[in-house]
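User: 4-hydroxy-tetrahydrodipicolinate synthase. Structure?
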Amino acid sequence: MTTTPTFPRPTPFGRVLTAMATAFHDDGSVDLEGTARIATHLVDHGHDGVVVSGTTGESPTTTVAEDGEILAAVKDAVGDRATVVAGVGTNATAHSVELAVQAEKIGVDGLLLVTPYYNKPSQAGVLHHFRTVAEATGVPVMLYDVPGRTGLAISLETYAAAIELDTVVAVKDAVGDFVRGVKLMQMGYAVYSGDDVSTLGWLAHGGSGVVSVLGHAAGPQIRRMFDAFDAGDHAAALAEFTRMLPAVDAVMGVPNYGATTAKAALQLLGVLDNRNVRGPLVPLDDDEVAALRAGLAASGLL
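Assistant: Predicted structure:
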């Protein structure tokens, strides 16, 4: 069955994006060639864009200078055919401003700005942080709401005030409250799924896209799910989603999922020759890699 979608979806950064991993050499230094290779792999496999230096990119462990080098390498590799979004969220407003200004100079298409973590500011403090960083550049901003990592959710009142800022256009939602998400869309936000297991649900509720982790290994499959849903073939979209579930469980099923599982998946796919991470993360052990391999294979990804 093929029909025309019943309503338009704002897609300021495209539909399918992945919060990409950052490659490291054995000595712990940034592997810019490997990082560019990851970006190229993603864009060659169904992605409209990449998010650089998010949590999956191990941004808590990289310096401002390294962030600039990583971003420039990715921009050079894929910036002519995909959107490049820079993670600039930290729990220090001045630090985030520094990262945002650097990213604008490099020429990114968007900024990902997470709620400040650990220091747990009031909602007034959250809004002050968002406003200060957003007003530092002219680059479109995607807010990131992930209370499981930050210990703090963005209130609807803060969302309502933030959308009044000229550059704030989207949110990456890892809360998974679809009713609240519809309210955000009514405010004017493009809502991107921040959790692979929720992506099909977001599409059903009017979501714009996904910022994935599974996309490191399943870009074409995620793209097919989006294309089927957009064509009105919801049964085919559900079938694609269902086939990916073993891989979702495998990628998200270890305590330090994200960079660790993404890099191990990239190693299994031959994109990287190692699965190096920086402390406090540790690479997947052999048993964890075997479980990841089994999950990816069960979804037809290996």
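The longest strand covers residues 168-173. The CA atoms of residues 264 and 285 lie 10 Å apart.
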